[in-house]
Amino acid sequence: MDPRREHRRLTALNYHESAAFARGIQLVGGVDEVGRGPLAGPVIAACVVNAQPLLLEGLDDSKVVPRERRERLAQEIRARCSAWAIGSASIEEIDRLNIYRATLLAMERALAALPALPELLLVDAMHLDCFAGEQEALVHGDARSSTIAAASIIAKVHRDSLLVELHARYPVYGFDEHKGYATRRHLEALRVHGPSPVHRRSFLGNLHALSLFDALDGQE
Length: 220
Prior knowledge:
Low-confidence stretches: 209-220
Strand order of the largest sheet: 3-2-1-4-5
Radius of gyration: 19 Å
Largest sheet: 5 strands, mixed
Mean pLDDT: 93
Distance between the termini: 38 Å
CATH architecture of the largest domain: 2-Layer Sandwich
């Protein structure tokens, strides 16, 4: 990794945070979620709060960071940031509220778990009514903001560990491999075994699962 190129990338990733600190903001928070799309497991949100730019080598959107690096970065983020917290919404809440409202609930719980609230909150393409301070919704924020990227990594590492635990309870579905997403193996396991208690019933109903399974039968 070219150190100069990485420094330029991290400087750009901290653009919103640096601009806020330059105008006197002391604490900037970033919020992101993981797990809106899977067929199983909770949705997890995290909030990371910083008092200075977060210049961690390799920091990026959790979706593009390899697993080993995500786990290392999660440790570094927790050690370096001013505060961090996790919130979740359960399978039952996802089915009852819908995934969008459950995601907002998980984000609200992450904020409520912080020891102190930031003055500016950066959110990945959403708005949180529960936050009374200054707030900015950034489209693709996990690729444009260091604190949102850090929150996405904290949330991803936490959720992945939960799905590994669920795999130990329901090994036939392969949660440790696909983390609840609709892969070929997961859909085939659902066809053979039916849903487990940790599957989102509202998602399975929307899938028109039988037609998906029929389509799989014709694939290699």
